[in-house]
Amino acid sequence: MFYYVLKYVLLGPLLRLLFRPRIEGLEHIPANGAAIIAGNHLSFSDHFLMPAILKRRITFLAKAEYFTGPGLKGRLTAFFFRGAGQIPVDRSGKEAGRAAIREGLGVLAKDELLGIYPEGTRSHDGRLYKGKVGVAVMAISAQVPVVPCAMVGTFEIQPPGQVVPRIKRVTIRFGEPMEFARYAGLENEKAAVRAVTDEIMYAILGLSGQEYVDRYAAEVKAEQAKAEPARKFPRLRR
């Protein structure tokens, strides 16, 4: 119930008014039945802008940190995400990945739309990073179409660290549904899920026009965070 209050009364109309999103390819979203919407992830705003323009309800696998934050802000954020029907996912370790896949397959089993960001985290620099294979495992296991999606301009309105987004028009672009029936039964084959994931990421890249980095975003972020103290406090030469 709260999902539809947000979508049609509280948040949805406000987002459409402020950001005036250009919508391209909305006809590619199936009118019924299960499907995965796989998109790039540039901004915290992505969580709200895409659901605001879709006719159907969509459930995202959201990082568990959104549900466990401290203080009043943390409780409000958790309440908001739960009310919007989002599912918390622990992103640490292999078992966490399996749990996320189980949750996602549960959504698809109910013939609903599942939203997922294959990169696994927000892009910290606006580039598109290598996708994790969970999206492929779910697409092959459930034998559902994958609709690639590109958020364009959301990095500019709310880059990492910016709390209040800038008011600027954005574009939300959907591509043609992708079918992977030829991989049926191969959801546990590393080569197959890697091939499917790369195909999905290539489709997202074609829609977004981003620069592509063939590495996981989390790894690059970790390296840069580790190097940051060295840049700030270089060792003195003797």
Write the layout of secondary structure elements.
Elements: H1 2-10, H2 12-19, E1 22-24, E2 35-39, H3 46-53, E3 58-63, H4 71-83, E4 87-89, H5 94-109, E5 113-116, E6 128-129, H6 134-142, E7 146-152, H7 154-157, E8 171-174, H8 190-208, E9 212-213, H9 217-232
Parallel strand pairs: 1-8, 2-5, 2-7, 3-4, 3-5, 6-9
Antiparallel strand pairs: 7-8
Helix pairs in contact: 2-3, 5-6, 6-8
Please provide a written account of the structure.
There is one protein chain. The chain is of the alpha/beta class and 238 residues long. It has nine helices and nine strands. It has helices at residues 2-10, 12-19, 46-53, 71-83, 94-109, 134-142, 154-157, 190-208, 217-232; strands at 22-24, 35-39, 58-63, 87-89, 113-116, 128-129, 146-152, 171-174, 212-213. It has a seven-stranded mixed sheet, with helices on both faces. The chain has a two-stranded parallel sheet with strand order 6-9. Helix 2 (12-19) packs across helix 3 (46-53), helix 5 packs parallel to helix 6 and helix 6 (134-142) packs across helix 8. The longest helix is centred in the C-terminal third of the chain and has 19 residues, at 190-208.
